[in-house]
Amino acid sequence: MDTRLAVFIVHGIGDLKKGFSHDMQENLRANFKRALQHMGQGDREGQDDALIFREGLWADITQEGQDTLKNRMFNDPDTDIDWIKARKFFVDYLGDAISYFKGSTSDVYSQYNAIQSRIDGLMQNLSNETNPNQNTLLTVVSHSLGTVVLSDYLYDKRNVLEPDYQLIFSNFFTLGSPIALYANRFYNHESESNPFANFKPQKVKDENGVWINMFDEEDIVGYPIRPVNSHCKKVVAADLNVSVGSMLTGWNPASHTGYWEDEEVGKIIAEKLAIDWLRVNKWDKKEKTLARLKKHKERYDMPAS
Asked: Which of 14, 69, 110, 161 has its CA 20 to 30 A from that of 285?
């Protein structure tokens, strides 16, 4: 039996439905097969079932409070307010970011803990589908605020993910990510040379793994991560500026949801998955894997280090 790969797809701000995850799964499945064909490995058996997907929806946890808040603010007979539709949209989107506030486990900031508990349960479910007799490579594909949620989760679980769930944190693909903005949590006013030195996101555990951050320059939620500090430059292999979205959304901030079906995004992720699959099944020797990884970097103009 060939070894499969675990892929955890995590939604972001305001995402309550499963459509985006389905789009990404179909995107990755198709491009995974194409990548194997381009590598001369298109006849490998087991490729149809090579990827084990799990979806990470969490926005419903914050939505109940946001709906209650909107009802109280916008249906109060003593309050006159304009731009209600736009304000409701703003409450939903900014509300997720505000609700996701990291406090102590015993204090009033309970939504952070509820979201992290949801992610942990889904990760356990994903682990249950993998081979119990060996560790499985884990690739996380996350979007928007979901990138922050998973960055926190992977940091908190850095020492238990492998021994408890037999999952090796191998790849992290962040799409339209505001992670760089959260560096301001750690800003040190007393340091002139390196005020963000304490911002240290978790690096991947697999020696052949990568963290690739993708953003569209029209997407005002997505930002590069590597420039924040030397640690970010070390753990993030590349900040890739990709063009996503349709003719209606590709030139404006609505491009924020365009990553899921984008062909280039799918190719970048799926090619790495194909390299991993050939490696863990020992169909590629170490030298061949390193050569494929080098080509992967060169093809998408990733920095050498």
From this structure: 161
